[in-house]
């Protein structure tokens, strides 16, 4: 609606003059009202009207205008307020924040538009805006004769302007006090084309204004030079050149320049794109340091703009956070704009051969100046690369690489000192590869730096693990997780004489991969395959050697296994500390060397006590190997792919271990037949008077038929101590492959059996030696000299004492033992259904050997191979904390499955149900292993100097449950029943889930 300023009557918007007095009609803002349409998480919908008075608050507290009971909402969560006819929403410091149209607003105030959706906790509020329009808006105005409009009173001409000493524009007759730009009559016209609206900022070179273009009506920014510089021909030429430089750069991440002018009154000005005013410096003050993916996203945009400038022969010379602006595009994404071209250097033809020196001839900002700028040497684009390196260091660490109170000291640092080691900042993502990219940009010699800004962005993205491709671009667009690649503008003006910003030939840079299949992880996977085959051969052969050659009892053999498991449990943290001190690869190779010698020592064991000593030594080797391998994977894989790397490594270990055990049984039969010269043997089979579940008589192979006389009881075995009466003794011809392994000494001599097992030990030694050779050749450890490390630590402490205000890593060190307890709690229910438990349950239910074989192949080999890499990939994308919860879900589900297994005893479905239960448990294990590796890498990254020790402690928690809980479950099954055991297991799974959730939430992992 419009209103007459004389008679105050209202008219439709299409009317221009009052039909009573001829006055020009003035538009009036429509009356505005707004509503909040609330949809709660429980399905309840409510509606609220917003008042134009005090703010409307939302939260759990009863004193709010809108009270929500959602537990995800804070006591005072948000407020809605109307000012000047517009509505705004503000976050009142809530814990979970506010999302407006899917974008988190942080601490900023956001203006609302009709239809905006505000997510608060689990509730959604839709903002509805309406105007109370007059009923006569759509009624056509009655035809009236046009009345001549009286002549408007003449407006006074715009005041003549001058530039004050501060760079501000003032009228000639204006007093010295600060000007009020709020009224229309007070606004000044610059050059007859630009209406000054407001002053935005002021620096050493002049003042920046918000202005309106008279002819177009849009708002722009106008940069005016200080008066003492306007009269200087050199400064005026630099100012004109700044406009020409910026106008030549056509890039979405560059501040666009529209015009340049120099009025007779004196002001020289540049008209450029109006930005929001928030700079990268403001972001640094607010956030300190940034995550590596965030820095990659920022630098891809910055380097794209700088590269476009270099393509046009432009050297910026003064890149700094204050000249990099942070905006938001139409889709709510972070948009970077590079501006501040006041010190940009172009070739001589652009400046018409004039020498650009004078009051501003000392080019650059000292903290960001390259060595060649300090020494006044000729410059090219690599001077800007150095400034980008300083900014990159500052974004990643929160501090400048060089700081000093005196300019001379700062110059010496830039000329002669190396930048601080950012890998010692306690952040896992700031590793040697990232430091190498930054240090290359900060090289004292321009020849050692990246030759182009685009190459700097590519190297940074390569070491960050953020990859391109269709999937990457789709994920980036949908989630903002991956950064966008730099926008490359390939056009440039005609080549001009003078300096050029880019070399003619770009050197090839080898991309440094840090994904799941980087060289170190691939080598460790190959080592794990060879080592696990060797271990599988040993794991099968040593018990047989003790049982069949030395005649030990089963309980004694279990003691061998117990020793081999207890020693790593006790010594893993110790060897982890040694790996931190002496090098991970060195301790890893010591472990492989001991394992190789142990395999050979078994072949020469002649007395039973020697087996115990050798098993203890093997336990020492295992304790040295685990923490070093885990730490090397964490060191050489970026955080985005660490779970996937662990998934492939653990999958390789589990599948190759089964291959080794199966290979041992296969080789045993082949070599035994070869040493004996026959493939069939004569076995004495005693048929007993007790029966199997299927109704068949129990049969047992005996060595001497005289000891099993018909009608007499036969003593029980360790597996079944109850004696049974012999019905008859039969002699049967059996293939060696059909004879149970524990009965081999009853049908063959000990000589061939011993030779066979010794041959398997030698074969195991060969596999172990190959793994040792592979590690020695292909794994290159990133190591530092011990002396240098100590000296750097002293320097760091001294620097902290001299500069107590310096920023330290703000992250709290997680409690390693608390996470070790989490590993134990999560795996304890899982290990209760493996090992002794599963064997005892299978024996009690009389599961056939064929069914057990298929369960082992499908559930314990194929399932991890299929699901392990998948869960690693998933954990890298949605978070390890979410995927690891599947371990507890699998524990609960398998508890129910194993509880109903006895219902199928004696049926054809028994093997199927047990196989499904076993497969579900292996799926849970496949979800746990890679995510636990990722969590271990994250926890250990808070103290890289003790990473291997931390890994050892975390592995010890898992090993404890692996050692103890199968025995506990087997005893409970033997003396209690299956129901109580599964109930206890389910309770443990729930406790582990709650404890894990609280621990992850506390440390935000």
SSE blueprint and pairings:
Layout: E1 2-3, E2 10-11, E3 26-27, E4 31-39, E5 45-50, E6 56-59, E7 66-67, E8 78-83, E9 86-91, E10 98-100, E11 103-104, E12 109-111, E13 117-120, E14 123-132, E15 161-163, E16 169-171, E17 189-190, E18 194-202, E19 206-213, E20 219-225, H1 227-230, H2 233-248, E21 257-262, E22 268-272, H3 280-287, H4 292-311, E23 324-328, E24 334-338, H5 371-374, H6 382-397, H7 407-416, H8 432-441, H9 453-464, H10 470-479, H11 519-549, H12 554-582, H13 584-603, H14 608-636, H15 642-676, E25 680-691, E26 697-702, E27 713-714, E28 724-735, H16 750-778, H17 786-802, H18 816-831, H19 836-845, H20 849-878, H21 880-883, H22 885-900, H23 910-940, H24 947-975, H25 978-1003
Parallel strand pairs: 6-7
Antiparallel strand pairs: 1-2, 1-3, 4-5, 4-14, 6-8, 8-9, 9-12, 10-11, 10-13, 13-14, 15-16, 17-18, 18-19, 19-20, 20-22, 21-22, 23-24, 25-26, 25-28, 27-28
Helix pairs in contact: 4-6, 4-9, 6-8, 8-9, 11-14, 11-15, 11-16, 12-13, 12-14, 12-24, 13-14, 13-16, 14-23, 14-24, 15-16, 15-20, 15-23, 18-22, 18-23, 18-24, 18-25, 19-24, 20-23, 22-23, 22-25, 23-24
